Amino acid sequence: MTTVLITDDQPLQRFGFRMLLESQDDMTVTGEASNGSEAVRMAAELSPDVVLMDVRMPGLDGIEATRRITAAGDRTRVLILTTFDLDEYAYAGLRAGASGFLVKDAQPEELLSGIRAVATGDAVVAPSLTRRLLDAYVHHLPAQNPTDSPEPTPLDTRLTTLTDRELEILTVIGRGWTNTEIAARLHLAESTVKTHVGRILAKTASRDRIQAVILAYDAGLVRPS
Fold it and tell me: Which of 66, 123, 162, 182 is such that its CA lies 20 to 30 A from the CA of 172?
């Protein structure tokens, strides 16, 4: 049974989500929060598998609430719901630790499958959207002269545990390749790719695929298109 905490400042929106989720045999709603502060408190109290998180709310917004929930180190994962597929705040959710992004006008089946995927540790963002969000995110990083030698950072040290093949796969994950594309282009079995991805996530302490993509950007393995 997947437990879900719904966070949205619109009562009718929360009601709609609850009706949909409780129609599923494998899901239950543990609570509803109307703002970010409530979401943080209730996530700590209820420890749900997934928090459905609105972005724009009065008081503490969804991005900061996501940051606080994921920083607590609990098993709870956050699925952010945005009004547009390139919400102006969405890229910040990547840094905050969100495990996925869906638009609010997504089909019910998409939302349900997204919740199930996030609950099992997968990321829920199409590779093309992941790349677009990350390109937007990268433009907010400090500018660096290409000829400069960057100082080692904690993120760089996390790469030292990876094999050459794992480093190669992390790079193409950062470019938005799916497991199927990686298998075809690198001439590997898809099951082998999945094993490599799992090891990369474990070795780099990445919560999910999205966080691995962020690592690839932060470490300079991938640059915006």
Answer: 66
Q: Judge contact between 112 and 86, C-beta under 8 A.
A: no
Contact 222, 171 (CB under 8 A): yes
pTM of the model: 0.67
- Rounded Cα gap, residues 148 and 132, in angstroms: 26
112, two tokens:
């349900």
Give the model confidence (pLDDT) of 153-190 as tens digits.
Answer: 444 678 989 999 999 999 998 887 888 889 999 999 98
- Match 């409530």 to its residue by tokens: 38
Per the document, the length of the chain is 225
> Taking Cα atoms as reference points, which of 101, 96, 93 lies closest to residue 68?
96
Rounded CA separation 77/50 (Å): 5
Q: Angle at which helices 190-203 and 164-174 pack, to 10 degrees?
A: 90
Nearest to 96 by CA among 127, 119, 65: 65
